[in-house]
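Review form for a predicted model. The reviewer records the input and the model, then writes brief findings.
Reviewer: anonymous (R2)
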Amino acid sequence: MSEWVVAMKEEDLKEEKIKVIKAENKQIAIIKKANEIFALLNECPHEGCPLKNGTLEEYTLKCACHNWGFDIRTGENVDTGEYIDIDDPKVDTFETRVEGGNIEILV
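Model under review:
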C-alpha cells in the first residue's frame, strides 16, 4: 500500500541538486529541476551504484560508475553507454507533491 511521506522542506532543496532520503527502506534521490520536484530510486539497475554521485545534464541523470543515463521524469534509460547486459534498465520513480512547504513522496 502506498502512502505519502514527508521527505524534506522544499526550501532545503536547491535547483539541480540531488538530496537523498530514506523512506520505506529505500534510498530515494530527490531533484529539483525547472521548479519541479522529481524522485527516483538512488540505485543504478546495472550494478547498484548510487545515482546521487552522478551528474545531471538537462533531465538526464548520469550514473557515476558506468555513465548510464536515466530520465529523471520517467526513470527510462536514455543512454546505456558501453554496457548493455540487462533487458529493461529502468529506475523506479516516485510521485511527488509539495504540501505546506514540505516535499512529499508517494512510496
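Findings: The chain has a mean pLDDT of 92.
Further findings: The chain has no helices and eleven strands.
Recommendation: see findings above.
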